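Priority: low. Protein: Cystathionine beta-lyase. Input follows.
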Amino acid sequence: MSDENAVSAGWERLNSLLVRVGRPEIDEAPQGGRLVNPSVTRGSTVLFPDIATMQSVGRERYEHVAIYGAMGSTVQHQLERAVAAIEGGANTQVVSSGLAACTTALLVWTSAGGHCLIPDSCYGPTRRFADTMLRRFGVETEYYDPCAGEGALRALMRSNTQVVFAESPGSHTFEIQDVKMLARVAHDGGARLLLDNTWGFGVFSPFEHGVDVSIQALTKYAAGHSDAVLGAITVADDGLWRALRDAAIQLGQLAGPDECWLTLRGLRTMGVRLAHQSRTALQVARWLDARPEVFRVLHPALPDCPGHALWKRDFSGAGTVFGVSLTPAYTRAAMEAMVDSLALFGIGASWGGFESLVLPTTGGIVRSVSAPEQNDEGPSFRLNIGLEAAEDLIADLENGLGTLAAT
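Result:
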């Protein structure tokens, strides 16, 4: 299969599943019928007919049932079933944000005196949490090169290593990690493998590759419309689920019913949206890669991107967000003026929605082990490709790059 077809194939294969997951069956509804979309259920107090029933339901906290508003609503439970099915897991806990998914998972599976390995390319707020709260709780974090080989990773493992964290591809620099190898190293050392799988949601099967805990920012592809913030943590093991569910209840982690409903609705069209967006993203990435103003393009489907062979091996599709570095002939100020000149790319954080976005990344990438930039490259930015036509986006970028020549 060509890379052009490969970037969208996985999204297209999801469509039949996405239409059906997280919806009640017809025979579960009154009079044998139901609305196409589930209702939004808002509330804090759940009423029971008697004390015995309340006590019985209260013991079912590991089931996706209505117990109390702070333990999740009906629509949240429907979303949890949907995400678990897409990820290939058994149970999902929906939480308030993608960052909350990362931090909650780290809190569940680390403890005082423990050691945690995190890739140097991780999401910035995940690093900030590890360097502040985890440190205060007595957990030592060590960062590793996201492209490190098995021998180097084994050398970093300790007797008290509790978690190996992965993020594939890496934030801003888009390295694809060898997740199968990471799972082998983690498990041989008695640790859990946690993966931020946001970019690969639906096109990377975490549990088939040895992942213990898969983390999602549902804000991105699942919700898809830049109007909801929430996250998810998925596991395939019952023991891990009980530990996760207990921690979520103790931390008061949940998501609002409106955000859950919006995300369920976004899931229905995720495959169609991302099949188009991923094809357009590769087209734009290749166009940029051929431009003289561009030093390199970091898109996992491009052969020069770190981990490209692993992407071809492990992923059934590609995401919509990638990085661009200009040549060193251009200054940061020139790059920012170029970004300001774009008409179709909104300037803002996050990604995965229907609108194309651009975000300068020069000065915002923190590394302590692996160099984020080559010495001979210039300022960088990140693009998220939306639903606009490829030719329109390319024309906008061509105009923007034209401003560089004038500075």
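The CA atoms of residues 212 and 240 lie 8 Å apart. The first helix runs from residue 3 to 13.
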